[in-house]
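Example record for the data management plan.
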Amino acid sequence: MAAAASVRTGPRPRRGYRRTTPQCPHPRAGDPALSDEPAQPPAVPEGTTAPVRRPRTRLLLTLAAVVLLADLATKLLVVATIEPGADVRVLGGLVYLTQARNTGAAFSFAEGFTVVFTLVAVVVAVVIVRTARRLASLGWAVALGLVLGGAVGNLVDRVFRDPGFLRGGVVDFVSVFAPDGEVYPIFNLADSAIVCGGVLGAVLALRGIEFDGTRGGDRGTDRGDDAVARD
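Corresponding structural encoding:
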């Protein structure tokens, strides 16, 4: 007995201590760990949609306000400092500042249809403001903001300047390359904003970018995929 007691090595277990071993839970039927099929992503609750893009209404209106204020300020400065018909040569003759009145559209186009273009400007402004509620594209917000600011800027002249209500002449003052619009029609800041916004809008339309920021082709593909999934 003494020899057997001397063979034992290591610390003796404490009294009342019971050694346990971790037990693995029994696998259940359909356990992903034992299934040959790949794990599926969690199901999306029915009735849920993709996250809504943030409207760009504030950006559109802010940009339109900046264009409008800049246009009104430059016109008031020109009327106060430059006589009608006078030419101020700047940038070495690249630009001439003058004061002219335009009763047509942008860049003195179709003069004599002042009332028509005034009504068109009102319609354009109303349509853009109504569209701004569902506008989520940054590019379209910039394009429509430029057009809205320019349209309202020229509309103010048509309403409040001589010769009368809805027939007022728009103040144009920029002539490039030569005085008096000999090379290119005389224009103002509002005209430039309208043209730049129109060009940007045309580029966005050609690229298929919608007002909500999505692409037209992607939307059609998504609809096709949904139809195939339903079938």
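Summary line stored alongside the record: The longest strand covers residues 95-102.
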